[in-house]
Design brief:
Layout (H helix, E strand, L loop, with lengths): L10 E4 L5 H10 L1 E3 L9 H10 L2 E3 L8 H6 L6 E3 L10 H6 L3 E3 L6 H17 L1 H9 L20 E5 L3 H12 L3 E5 L6 H7 L1 E3 L3 H5 L4 E4 L13 H4 L7 E4 L8 H9 L5 E4 L10 H5 L3 E3 L8 H19 L12
Helix pairs in contact: 1-13, 5-7
Bound molecules: 2-keto-D-gluconic acid (8YV).
Length: 330
């Protein structure tokens, strides 16, 4: 690897293969160890990396728990996560050990909102059912009643979590003439609410009972873990569809599959799962469920943007400044 001769280059360990342009810049700036083969680290490898690095760059596939943080020597000062969600990192344990955590918000907002809309359109319009039939050579031609789904326009969309991504979904939904509703811990400023033409529900159960489509766009925290448990899912109307591009753990997947199977919920579009990459087998059996492999931010633009954010956070931090995307324990 080429070196510029700077003697104070921080030791940075990256756990997964990142876009080439980001890796190249990392090599120019830092004493970096890349994972070009992209084989995920074991818990032991993570501990070893934490002990050896000044800066660790993990992703959603690395569990940075108390054990990993405890294994860090005095050297580790920053965990610069490649991704917005930090539910896989014990941020409190890091803070207690004097290790800062940063993430990459903002650069994946629009892409994740696009994917949310893609699922939101796919389930009611039965896109993947049609695709499957056609590819299987089972399409016998147009008929007046074949694959009838449901109209999107005029439907009520309930967004759970109205942060950056939730609001980007709301803007898109507005363009589709949907009626936007939301639930969030803290209500949006009146002006933002007015711009989005969004109706606030302080009580999630009340909102769920009234929606045609529900989109999960909140981070995974202790409070949102299994937020949509069996009892809550039962509040949905039988024609309702649920979309999740946030984190699988927010929904009780077993209950979701059961309720879809018996027709108590109409369908689901899921990009995230509680036990990735394992998928609950019951979900795989269901026709009216669209399942995607956690690809909300999978655009070249977003992934390069995320990498650039990681670079900026590391550079700011190691230059003695406050990194722009510091995560404070919630
Ligand atoms: C990322 C995500 O691809 O940023 C997030 O929180 O869920 C994904 O879009 C992943 O986290 C990368 O670590």
């Amino acid at each position: 690897m080429s070196q510029t001769g700077n003697t104070h280059r921080p030791k940075v360990i990256v756990t997964r293969k990142l876009p080439d342009s980001i890796e190249t810049r990392m090599a120019e700036l830092f004493d970096v160890t890349l994972n070009l083969k992209d084989i995920p680290f074991s818990a032991e490898q993570l501990k070893a990396a934490a002990a050896e690095a000044d800066v660790l760059v993990p992703t959603v596939t690395d569990t940075i728990d108390e054990g990993v943080i405890a294994a860090a020597g005095d050297r580790l000062k920053l965990i610069a996560n490649f991704g917005a969600g930090v539910d896989h990192i014990d941020v409190s344990a890091a803070q207690a050990k004097g290790v800062a955590v940063t993430n990459t918000p903002g650069v994946l907002t629009e892409d994740t909102a696009d994917l949310t809309m893609a699922l939101l359109l796919s389930v009611p319009r039965r896109l993947f059912e049609g695709e499957k039939i056609l590819r299987a050579g089972k399409w016998t031609g147009w008929t007046p009643t074949f694959l009838m789904g449901h109209r999107i326009e005029g439907k009520r969309l309930g967004i759970i979590g109205m942060g950056r991504i939730g609001q980007a979904v709301a803007r898109r939904a507005k363009a589709f003439n949907m009626s936007v509703h939301y639930h969030k811990r803290t209500r949006l400023p009146a002006q933002t609410e007015a711009e989005l033409e969004a109706t606030y529900w302080e009580d999630l159960d009340q909102m769920l009972a009234r929606m045609d489509i529900v989109s999960v766009n909140c981070p995974l925290t202790e409070d949102t873990n299994r937020l949509l448990d069996r009892a809550r899912l039962k509040k949905l109307q039988p024609h309702a569809v649920i979309i999740n591009t946030a984190r699988g753990e927010i929904i009780d997947e077993e209950a979701l599959a059961d309720l879809i199977e018996v027709g108590r919920i109409a369908g689901a579009g899921l990009d995230v799962f509680a036990e990735e990459p394992q998928i609950n087998p019951k979900l795989l059996e269901l026709e009216n469920v669209v399942l995607l492999p956690h690809m909300g931010s999978a655009t070249i633009e977003a992934r390069v943007g995320m990498g650039e954010k990681v670079l900026i956070n590391i550079r700011a931090f190691t230059d003695g400044h406050r990194p722009p995307d510091r995560v404070i324990p919630g």
